[in-house]
Amino acid sequence: MSGVYTQLVSKLLFPLQERLKGHNSVTLRQALEKSQWLTATQIQQLQSNKLQTFIQNAYQHVPYYRNLLDSLGIKASDFNSPAQLARLPFLTKAVIRENEDNLKADNAQGLQKFNTGGSSGSPLIFFLNNERVSHDVAEKWRATRWWDVDIGDREIVAWGSPIELTGQDRIKMVRDKVMRTKLIPAFDLGEQQIHDFIQRIRSFKPKMLFGYPSVYDLIARKAQEQGIKLNDLGIKVAFVTSERLYDHQCANIEQVFGCPVANGYGGRDAGFIAHQCPHGGMHISAEDIIVEIIDPVGKPLPAGESGEIVVTHLATSAFPFIRYRTGDIGTLSKDPCLCGRGLPLLEKIDGRSTDFIVAQDGTVMHGLALIYVLREIPGIQEFKITQQDLEHTHVEICLGNAPFTAALHERISQGLKKRLGQSVEISVETVEQITPEKSGKYRYVKSLVEIEQR
Q: CATH says 359-453 is which class?
């Protein structure tokens, strides 16, 4: 049961804010909470209807897609089901960069420039307007309400966003105070900062944690080391997103904070693709998003088979994302969720293609194969593994007060060589703390090997 202040925010103040911004997120969220209970067949029909309107709009107003469909001899009216999308080429970051202006709808209003964090390469610049933003807000809102958390409930947000004091940021700080949201900037996670964050969480007593799993895992481990309890605060859920969630992180966060962990999957470019419900299902936001899984040559795969995640976002009419290659690896589920929602499920999200590494003999493996080597070595507090090329892998480790010995170097080197190849050079560097990506995210494994080498 929500408190009086939460109801004031969720039913009056937040809707007023959204209306002033030109967002229709309140109406959208209400519609989503009804459509989630449709059958799988009904949701597929809803998708098909939206897709046909979406493609017709793209043909009429977006030069890139008008030229593309004409060159392929395809009519916009042909797209009467998601299966028809396979007739179109993929949208890649390179295509977006080369066709930035031609991807803008000629009737678009209020386009704003956005960019990705660039953690897997150079940032991508793209454009969104109130339509996409409203749908993003509505989808996150729906998902948090699955966990009995509403807008206006106390929330801690760990995010890769530095705090600046421009006029706009001051307005945001006031808004966050009204909405009862506190930010933990993920860029600065030194010992003193982490201790301060722990104290802030204890005094604030949030109902929900939201943000990067690596940050909450780090805070949880530091709280354990310092003997500080965080499982008595009444936290309902830790909603983690924007990074791969590892099993050991999930277990640690749940134990220390005394709450379940809910995974969320998406990005600035592709939108909020899927969210986890209390029954464990990763529900795709299928009212807005069509997900395909493709093999290395671009062929769509059936449910149950792993491949690259490709997204068509039906709420991007101003700057369409149609068959957008995310670079992430995942699997669609064959089964429905026990919660009864008709939304399709992602069975697995294995991470970015750059989270996979390749041995000298050509064997492709998930970064977990290397992560397990370092996790089993006592004394290593934090680490990052970067595959520079097929011949060289660099390792950064934090040891705290433990000494860096020749025996430790040899153990790391031999453990990684068993998986990568005996002639691979393994360099090891000790650092005081692991530096996050420009986005503020942390990555345990990063491969710089080009896709065509894999």
A: alpha beta
